[in-house]
Amino acid sequence: MKLPSYRFCFGPWNISEGQDPYGPPTRPPQSFDWKLAQLKAHGFDAMMFHDDDAVPDIDSKPGAQIRKEAHALKKRLDNEGIAAEMVAPRLWFSPMTVDGAYTSNSKKCRQYAIDRSKRCLDIARILGTDLIVLWLAREGSYLRESKNARRCMDYLVEALDAMLAHDKRARLAIEPKPNEPMDHAYIPTIGHALAIAQLTAAPKRIGCLIESAHAILAGLDPADEIDFAMSFGKLWSLHLNDQNGLKFDQDKPFGSANLRVAFNQVRALERNGYGRNGEYICFDVHPFRPTKPEHWLAHLDNSRRTFLKLVQKVRTFNDAKANALIAARNYAALDQLVIDHLLGR
Hints:
By secondary structure, this protein is of the alpha/beta class. The chain has twelve helices and ten strands. It has helices at 32-41, 51-54, 63-80, 107-127, 149-166, 190-197, 212-217, 222-231, 259-272, 298-315, 319-327, 331-343; strands at 8-10, 46-50, 83-88, 131-135, 140-141, 171-175, 184-185, 206-211, 235-240, 281-283. The strands form two sheets. It has an eight-stranded parallel beta sheet with strand order 3-2-1-10-9-8-6-4. Helix 1 links the parallel strand 1 and strand 2. Helix 8 runs parallel beside helix 9. It is globular, with a radius of gyration of 20 Å.
């Protein structure tokens, strides 16, 4: 089997200014043009977009203006040799989504979320990607008594069907997250995402996006989630990063907290042939808050470097010896074999 080669991607939000829920920015803002220019310079091939990254202030603009600005962006991307990997509707900033987007108790707010998602689909088509990522950020409850979860499943299916009907070529990739910002999310894992897809009018056009940190926050191993999704042929994108346990979403550089967990994610990607159908390796990572402006891109460089080194570690791992140890049930020796390999011994 031919081993896959990889292409890399990040989003403009991955060059953040250091603001968090407990403190202000620590670095001055950079323009979108500056962020776009960093892609090729640092070995990346594509950019991820929210709909309002592509067309700022999208809610205040008519459809014709949205399409005009999307076409202008497409021309810029083509001139730079940059692809749009995906577009995602940002449904967690608007006052209309305070208590949910697709699952709001308000019919008016639910319709806003669907209409905004259709505009996102239009932008994606113009930018040349069929991939729409749905981070269901506000789809959950703060209080169990405040929503009817059974009814909310119907609302979610209604929204997914509306998007599938709006663009018959589009693929919808659900990005689950078990918590934050909601108390509890309705679609917290890949299993939930693939299950709800079966209730829609076109299950084959609904897949998923795995983020390492989100899997860890659910108490799961990201490598197992990768294997699970790819056994269904449903891993259409992924966000590699790292996470120091069951805390807030940290978006650490890939391999920063647990190199062995990162190694096993790369093993899962390799054995399943991720990338052979054009999928990108996307890093959803952020600079550490104390980072100085002159080191702003290091977290992206480091994540890419770590990934490529781990690819070589995976491809040079002594599988024959590992299989013999597995057959002998000598897991202590297998454990040390992995450790020695990662340590370069």
